[in-house]
C-alpha cells in the first residue's frame, strides 16, 4: 500500500510526522504579548479614571462575592465597586 500524503485515515502511517500547529500571527513571544496587553490595559484604565486596589479576603467571602456576581450577571469587580459605593453613600 502506497503512502498518500493527503490520507489522514491511516494514522499509523503518519505517527512520526510532525504537523505544524497554528500559524504564528504575532512576531512577539507569548510573554512579550502578555506584557504589552497589560500595559495597554493599564493605559485604558488610566484614561477611564480607574485606579487599581488589591484586596485580600478569606475564601468564604470570595465565594459569596462570586455567587452574588453570577446571580446579578456582573463581574466581581463591578459588584465590589457597587458595594463600596453603597456603603460610602450610607455613611455620608
Structural account:
- The protein has 92 residues and is mainly α.
- It has a domain at 28-91: Arc Repressor Mutant, CATH 1.10.1220.
- The protein has three helices and no strands.
- It has helices at residues 30-47, 59-71, 76-91.
- Helix 2 packs across helix 3 (76-91).
- The termini are far apart.
- Residues 28-40 have a biased composition (Polar residues).
- Residues 1-50 are annotated as: Disordered.
- Residues 1-10 have a biased composition (Basic and acidic residues).
| CATH architecture assignment name of one domain | Orthogonal Bundle
State the end-to-end CA separation: 84 Å
Strand content: under 5%
Q: Give the overall pLDDT as a whole number.
A: 86
User: What helical percentage do the residues reach?
Assistant: 40-55%
Backbone shape: elongated
Largest sheet: none
Q: Gyration radius, to the nearest Å?
A: 25 Å
Helix-strand pattern: HHH
Total DSSP helices: 3
Question: Nutshell version of this structure?
Answer:
This protein is mainly alpha-helical and about 90 residues long. The chain is about 50% helix and about 0% strand. The chain has a domain at about 30-90: Arc Repressor Mutant (Orthogonal Bundle).
Features:
single chain, 92 residues, mainly alpha, Arc Repressor Mutant, elongated
Amino acid at each position: 500500500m502506497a503512502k498518500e500524503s493527503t490520507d489522514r485515515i491511516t494514522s499509523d502511517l503518519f505517527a512520526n510526522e510532525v504537523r505544524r500547529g497554528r500559524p504564528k500571527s504575532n512576531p512577539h513571544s507569548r510573554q512579550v504579548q502578555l506584557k504589552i496587553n497589560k500595559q495597554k490595559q493599564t493605559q485604558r484604565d488610566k484614561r477611564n479614571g480607574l485606579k487599581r486596589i488589591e484586596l485580600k479576603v478569606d475564601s468564604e467571602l470570595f465565594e459569596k462575592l462570586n455567587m452574588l456576581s453570577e446571580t446579578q450577571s456582573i463581574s466581581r469587580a463591578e459588584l465590589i465597586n457597587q458595594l463600596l459605593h453603597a456603603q460610602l453613600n450610607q455613611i455620608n
